[in-house]
Amino acid sequence: MPPLPNSHMFKMSHLKKKISLESYYSAADILNKLEELTGLVYLQDDNNPVIGFLPKNYLITQNNQNFLFTKTDLNKYKFSSYIENLLDFTQFQSQELKNSNREEISFKGGYIGF
């Protein structure tokens, strides 16, 4: 089995391709190599595994305060604002979804996390 490349060796072209887990590598192997990427999560969804990472925004809740962070570069984020109401964070950008190319392979809205 060939070794997996380190996460810093990935280019955006790699990130836009669908990765088949029916290969030499287990999901754990792939997740281990991607561990440095912000927002890394794995879901086994009815035999359709999903790996999510590098969200446009993410939210951290501590001591009943919600902190919103926004992506500024490939794996860089900055604090954007405090969010009073979680519903404000969870509203989809419907116009952006309407204008998107449905044939493109990528995650198109929704929330992954725990």
From TrEMBL:
Superkingdom of origin: Bacteria
Name of the featured protein: Aminodeoxychorismate synthase component I
Organism: Acinetobacter baumannii
